[in-house]
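Lecture 7 notes: from sequence to structure.

We start with a single chain of 299 residues. Read the sequence below before looking at the structure.
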Amino acid sequence: MNTVTQRKRASYRAWQGRPGPGIRIAKAAALAVVVLLVLFPMWTVLATSLAAPQDVIANGGWVVWPQRVSFDAYAEILDGGIVTRALLVSAGVTVIGTALSLTCTVFLAYALSRPGLYGGRPLLLLVLFTFLFPPGMIPLFLVVRSTGLFDQYAALVLPFLVNVFNLVVMRGFFQSIPAELLEAARIDGAGDWAVLWRVVLPLSKAVLAVVGLFYAVAYWNRFFEAIIYFNDQSKWPIGTVLRQYVTGGADITGEAAAVAAPQSTHGRQLPLRPSTVVATARPQPWIPSRAVEGLTATM
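Now the structure, written as tokens:
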């Protein structure tokens, strides 16, 4: 046995080798079980939403495989009633809020990433202070009331316009851009606006997409603030309506006043609850691996 072979065997680790057929079969079986456990509840909700009320009642409230497919539940919740109006409200708040938040975050992050900004360090410390000591519900309620934002859609956007976590992520990404590119643009006569628009933003498409996704998911999932700040229930977003219906048992097909006054569930409403959950699915943010690496490097 030569020296090279001995060195290879000495440096060999058990997890570096290719597993045997038994290990691969066991891993595939375990993965299949996990996937089935995850997909089965989702499939049950979808199947129940597509089943006829008689089938749902006969199976005790849930259906694994619908015998008669019916889209009546979806037609009923999307016929221009509470759910349709709430979806439009959530869509508008999400689009406008994401655009405003992304714009303000870009401007503030770019300013704080420049080393020559006058008062930049105290401003950064002030922003980080709000991250370490966030305001409570009562101070935020008093601010919304004093500024006249009650029953206004701005109450769902303005108090949450800039997220400090997203700001720190974007600032760290801007700082990672080579300074030589910015200096070259300034030598060519570009000002701060031109540098931001023509150099920084084209190189920051990845972080813009990630931060925009964070903002969009946060605005779409916001529901508790509408309960506090809105007396007019017709302005509730879909998250609030869905919570009142799924957890409170309110009649989703009635008027807006019926959302706050739960009614007894009857056979016709049984498929409505899962169909409402499917039609108004609340997404969760997904972080690409490159964004996680960039975030780790900036912290």
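The two ends are 50 Å apart (CA to CA). Keep this in mind for problem set 3.
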